[in-house]
Amino acid sequence: MIFSLNVLLILVRVSLSGAILDANYYQKTCPQVEDIIYTSVRNATANDLKVPARILRMFFHDCFIRGCDASVLLDSTPENKAEKDGHINLSLAAYNVIDDVKTMLEQSCPATVSCADIIAIAARDVVVISGGPSWSVLKGRKDGRISRAEETKTLPLSHDNTSQLIQSFSQRGLSVKDLVTLSGGHTLGRSRCSEFDYRLRNFSAAHDTDPTLDPEFATELKSKCPEHNKDPNAGENLDSTGLGFDNDYYKRIVGGKGLLVSDQTLLGDYRTRWRVEAFARYRRLFFWEFGPAMVRLGNVGVVESGEVRVNCRVVN
Ligand code: HEM
Ligand SMILES: *[C@@H]1O[C@H](CO)[C@@H](O)[C@H](O)[C@H]1NC(C)=O
Ligand SMILES: *[C@@H]1O[C@H](CO)[C@@H](O)[C@H](O)[C@H]1NC(C)=O
Ligand SMILES: *[C@@H]1O[C@H](CO)[C@@H](O)[C@H](O)[C@H]1NC(C)=O
Ligand SMILES: *[C@@H]1O[C@H](CO)[C@@H](O)[C@H](O)[C@H]1NC(C)=O
């Protein structure tokens, strides 16, 4: 109870702070910022195709915990366990990509570009690199000084239903439309078995497998995620084209092949179903909506006061 009250206070404070961002924020102080980030992220992707999914997810997690303030990048210290070592943490590989970008930016325009803005720009770039839409990224975020592992518990969970997801998004000032649109981020990347294998066996008293799951797909998943599975990294792509940004995620949901409960649930609720079906039918509609939704995600809990970290892993 005390915990959830704290969480609520954090969320309320975060969503009330007004966004003061600007597309031309670095025009005078670091005009080459977007070129440097794009080149670096593209190079990193050429070396490791997992980079786009990891960066996109990093942006989501950063903005959902304490707002978009790069709290996700801070390393743990002896006194403090940071977000990156909390529940459902991300992969180290993408943190290195941000470190490399930051090193280059510190050479070209020292102490100017915040780590939070780097994540926001890189998240747009990985979508473009993967074949998705582009948009103008608003900038001017400052970096936070606090990162707490336990706050990762406030992230939405893979078994959440639509009501829970709507609530989680609305606590951050995001709409039902934003929920459906941003969930399309699952057009990239994969999930480990542990996030969905409870859907495959002994699901409930009445159903051995989750009845919203296509039976053929369930069989396929059972072979990828065997019982007493020993490989913690075994898993499946979140849509059938894990490397390409497209609307296949929504087509799969319409076909009962949403991997996570939090994906499939969007078809089961009247508030979200029609938009899932529209995005499944019209790729261009999804692409049209995705950029503006990412801009709204990027406005969550933006801080005006704060610092520009010199090293994204430690406070100045
Ligand atoms: C709606 C609530 C959401 C839930 C419950 C959720 C949950 C998850 C889970 C459980 C995974 C797999 C993690 C693992 O295996 O360790 C995942 C992966 C991913 N999520 Fe989400 N997510 C949500 C929203 C989003 C949003 C809004 C975005 C971005 C716009 C996003 C981007 C991603 C990406 C790109 C991956 C793949 C990561 C990789 O392959 O490295 N997710 N998500
Ligand atoms: C490109 O990536 C390689 C391997 O990660 C790295 O050694 C090199 O410095 C990178 N070049 C640029 C311009 O980022
Ligand atoms: C995730 O957190 C655990 C500790 O909670 C840590 O041992 C592990 O290295 C972290 N993994 C990544 C990829 O950050
Ligand atoms: C969603 O989950 C919550 C918590 O488990 C539950 O109270 C609620 O009834 C569920 N809503 C729907 C529509 O299934
Ligand atoms: C299935 O679930 C029920 C109730 O949760 C449990 O009693 C039973 O042992 C489970 N069966 C298997 C094979 O895991």
TrEMBL record:
GO molecular function, one term: metal ion binding
Cofactor binding description: Binds 2 calcium ions per subunit. Binds 1 heme b (iron(II)-protoporphyrin IX) group per subunit.
Localization (cell): Secreted
Entry annotated with the keyword Glycoprotein: yes
Cofactor(s) this protein requires: Ca(2+); heme b
Keywords attached to this entry: Calcium, Disulfide bond, Glycoprotein, Heme, Hydrogen peroxide, Iron, Metal-binding, Oxidoreductase, Peroxidase, Secreted, Signal
Disulfide bond entries: 30-109, 63-68, 115-312, 193-225
Positions marked as site (Transition state stabilizer): 57
Catalyzed reactions: 2 a phenolic donor + H2O2 = 2 a phenolic radical donor + 2 H2O
Listed GO CC annotations: extracellular region
Residues involved in Ca(2+) 2 binding: 187, 239, 246
Pfam family, one: peroxidase
Signal sequence bounds: 1-17
SUPFAM superfamilies the UniProt entry points to: Heme-dependent peroxidases
EC number per UniProt: 1.11.1.7
List of residues binding heme b: 186
Annotated binding of substrate, by residue: 156
Active site per database record: 61
UniProt binding sites for Ca(2+) 1: 62, 67, 69, 71, 83
Gene3D superfamilies xrefs: 1.10.520.10, Peroxidase, domain 2
Record-stated family: Belongs to the peroxidase family. Classical plant (class III) peroxidase subfamily. Belongs to the peroxidase family. Ascorbate peroxidase subfamily.
Stated role: Removal of H(2)O(2), oxidation of toxic reductants, biosynthesis and degradation of lignin, suberization, auxin catabolism, response to environmental stresses such as wounding, pathogen attack and oxidative stress. These functions might be dependent on each isozyme/isoform in each plant tissue.
Protein's UniProt name: Peroxidase
GN (gene name): LOC105179251
